[in-house]
Amino acid sequence: MIDPNLQAQIIATVRKAGRVPREVPITSETCLVDDLRIDSLDLFAVLIAVQDRFELEIDVEDMPDLNRIGDLAAYVSARRNAAAA
Amino acid sequence: MTDRIVVVGHGAVTCLGRDMDATWAALCAGRSGIKRHATLNPENYLVDLAGMVEDFGPGSPTEDPAVSRLAARSIHLALASAREAWANAGLDKLSGSFDPDRVAVVIGSAFGGMDLYEAEQIKSAKRKSLAASPYLVPGLLINQMAGQVAQALGLHGPSVAPANACATGAHAVALGGMFLRADEADLAICGGAESAFTPMIVNGFATMKALVGRKPEDRSATDPSQASRPFSIDRAGFVMAEGAGMVVLAKESVARRLGLPVQAILAGWALNSDGYHMAMPNGQTIARCLATAIERSGLNPDQIDYYNAHGTSTPVNDRVETQALKDVFGDQARRLAISSIKGAIGHGLGAASGIETAVCVRTLMDQVMPPTINYRPDPELDLDYLTDQARSSAVNAVLSASFGFGGTNNALILTRGDR
């Protein structure tokens, strides 16, 4: 179960870095590329913003798996837990 | 008869105003845009005096969405100034009447996106990965200003980005003139843009002793608006500024066919190199540059009414420039009306001479010469620096000069558009 606060923070980060208009809904099922139409450059900008916001490193080889908001939230959560362990 | 090269539009964004009208009104009123800025904090900056365009650019409510991904301020300044100059020419309403493949874009800068570079470097140092923003490289490139202007205005002619320190904007105007004369283009949008308020660049200029420093006895200690004082006996360095200035050039035949306003004639130009020193000016080559531009314009020195000076407010530049004027104009030098707008808006580096070219166009249109503010007499510099207030007088021909570190010089001759 992903912390709703964490998911809200990720959505806010994606919205800002991906320049997603306020009226476009974003949920855990929303796909960054297919639904939000974030292009390849902006996708990098979004992932760097997530790195900066949560002070973690996203491995380049993990990027293809980070399609949906839920994927990103789970990834950040797992990284944080690993760091805390 | 050869097709003359005319100016059909102009625009500027400066610390005195977001557009040419606001800048011009403040210049002629003798106001200064120089302030102390809290963003230039003493922890990171050796100097906090600056001419900044406040509440503008990336992250501000007025950010231009066309370049929102490119956070280099110079790109935003260039685009605002270019849009203004383009509209001032009436070209925004003439799409389809001219061939966009025949419009050149010549816009340069001394430092380009170094503000973005340094900001990204600070962020990157805190990261756990080596990632850099995908918009760093496109925003850092000096030619991205020309690229974004071409994209926003739908232009497809030659695109060039001169980088010639403080002569950049005027070099862009001359290069635009060359494109038109060589029949590589019918129209050219030309100028410079700059925003270089990074710790490395500000502190680099400060340690060169190029800037007015923090001295309790300096006039700027009690009144920041007196920091930049070209040709004044107590001049103590320049004040860094940001901004942009552009003109739109046209072949006269094209301007007449399209019904564009002929605001001025670009009657001549000259570029040369000192071949002398990394930063010190050379009066002899500067004088040759000025004389060559006058000769190429077909005018005599006694026909130049106004000289828009490089006038940085450094002890060396203003002395060398004054001597060069005496060498070129001889007895006529004391008749010449001279002013430096850097007293009011500071030194916009690569943007400065683009702004000054736009100011010269407005001088010819309005028949008003802006003053040199903050002046106190220097017995060694004994010419007419227009030190009291703006002067309304017949101005038929203007000489505008710019000199850049690296020993690069430029002189432009502009004459009245209604002659």
- Proper CATH architecture of the largest domain in chain B: 3-Layer(aba) Sandwich
For the record, the CATH class of chain A is Mainly Alpha
- Alpha-carbon Rg of chain B, integer: 20 Å
- Extended strand count of chain A: 0
Structural class of chain B: alpha/beta
- For the record, the CATH class of the largest domain in chain B is Alpha Beta
Order of helices and strands of chain A: HHH
Description:
The complex is a heterodimer of chains A (85) and B (419). The mean pLDDT of chain A is 92. Helices cover 53% and strands 0% of the residues of chain A. In chain A, helix 1 crosses helix 2. With 85 residues, chain A is mostly helical. Chain A is globular, with a radius of gyration of 12 Å. Chain A contains 3 helices and no strands. Chain A has one domain: Non-ribosomal Peptide Synthetase Peptidyl Carrier Protein, Chain A, CATH 1.10.1200.10. With 419 residues, chain B is of the alpha/beta class. Chain B folds into 2 domains: 254 residues, Thiolase/Chalcone synthase (Peroxisomal Thiolase, Chain A, domain 1), CATH 3.40.47.10; 149 residues, Thiolase/Chalcone synthase (Peroxisomal Thiolase, Chain A, domain 1, 3-Layer(aba) Sandwich). Chain B has 12 helices and 14 strands. In chain B, the strands form 3 sheets. A 10-stranded mixed β-sheet of chain B has the order 5-4-6-7-1-8-14-13-9-10, sandwiched between helices. Chain B has a two-stranded antiparallel sheet with strand order 2-3. The radius of gyration of chain B is 20 Å and the shape is globular. The two termini of chain B are 15 Å apart. The model of chain B has no long low-confidence stretch (mean pLDDT 96). At the A-B interface, helix 2 of A face loops of B.
